[in-house]
Amino acid sequence: YSMQEKFIDDIIKYDKVKQTRQFLRTAIKCCCTGPNKPRQASLYFFRGLLNFQLHNFYEALADFNVAIREEEEATGQFHLARGRCFACLSILDEALKDLSIALDLDDTLLEAYIFRGKCAYLLGDNNLAFHDFQKLIISDQKNPLVHIYAGNLLMTTGAYTDAIKAFDNADTVQQTALASFQRIRCYCALSDLESAFEQMQLAKHQAPNEKFAQYDYKVLLSMLSCVRAFEFLRGDNGQVDESGRKEFNEIVANCIQ
After folding, report:
1. How far is CA 134 from CA 3, 129, 170, 252, in A?
2. pLDDT at 231 over 90
3. 84 Cβ partners below 8 Å, 6+ apart?
4. Residue of 137, 142, 133 whose CA lies nearest to 172
5. Which among 236, 233, 220, 230 has a CA at the least distance from the CA of 252?
6. Distance between CA 162 and CA 156 in Å, rounded?
């Protein structure tokens, strides 16, 4: 199974997941309840995945606990599932432990590197986060999210130029609106509003239904209009006279409206 894209995105899928979970509840009741009936780890594990899909994280965690406890041989997939569940509950230390166990058991679980790197990043362990994202870049070069995660980490250290390069690398694999949005943040931090606006136009095209992109576009356009107006009014001598200040204030007022 894969832990990617496990969230439900429409009503039909939601109903099917709930129905499947009910089947598993019946199976667990028939097969795992009562004397001399050992608990089947796989049944609890798959019900945990369904609970995770439904965002019932505490119920999912209880299922994964049973699955790990009852499994005869430790399984990396089980710890990966529980680690991600801990992460969704913001229990990051436990998530980090489970994800590390998952990788000790099976170092081919690339998703575990993604989630452990994110947890390490949130816990302030930049060295581990860099290690995991670097491992991913080497092992999963065709995944644009790997480069985006690396760029996010570089942003936290203030290395905005290097972060932009990481987001550009993501685009060489597959263009995404997320990479464009992150480049916008970098350019704004570098006070390069012209480049930020270019990226905003691209992001607006890539995510036409994203309302926040529409709002951000208007805000950034207003900021850029003010900067352009100020540069124009300042002229060659680098100074703005009284009439220029008045005109600039009117432009700012219009942008705010």
Report:
1. 20, 8, 14, 45
2. no
3. 3, 52, 95, 99, 115
4. 142
5. 230
6. 11
Out of 46-55, 179-188, 241-250, give the one with best mean pLDDT. Answer: 179-188
Spatial distance between the Cα atoms of 112 and 115, rounded to a whole number of angstroms: 5
Q: How far is CA 237 from CA 225, 229, 233, 252, in A?
A: 21, 15, 10, 22
| φ, ψ (nearest 5 deg) of residue 107 | -80, 5
Q: Which two tokens stand for residue 97?
A: 């432990």
What is the token pair recorded at 27? 């199976």
Tell me the pLDDT band of 59, cut-offs 50, 70 and 90: very high
HEC profile of 30-78: HHHCCCCCCCCHHHHHHHHHHHHHCCCHHHHHHHHHHHHHHCCCCCHHH
Give the model confidence (pLDDT) of 2-35 as tens digits.
Answer: 333 444 456 667 777 777 788 777 776 777 666 6
Q: What is the percentage of the chain residues whose pLDDT exceeds 90?
A: 28
Three-state SS letters, the chain: CCCCCCCCCCHHHHHHHHHHHHHHHHHHHHHHCCCCCCCCHHHHHHHHHHHHHCCCHHHHHHHHHHHHHHCCCCCHHHHHHHHHHHHHCCCHHHHHHHHHHHHHHCCCCHHHHHHHHHHHHHCCCHHHHHHHHHHHHHHCCCCHHHHHHHHHHHHHCCCHHHHHHHHHHHHHHCCCHHHHHHHHHHHHHCCCHHHHHHHHHHHHHHCCCCHHHHHHHHHHHHHHHHHHHHHHHHCCCCCCCHHHHHHHHHHHHHHHC
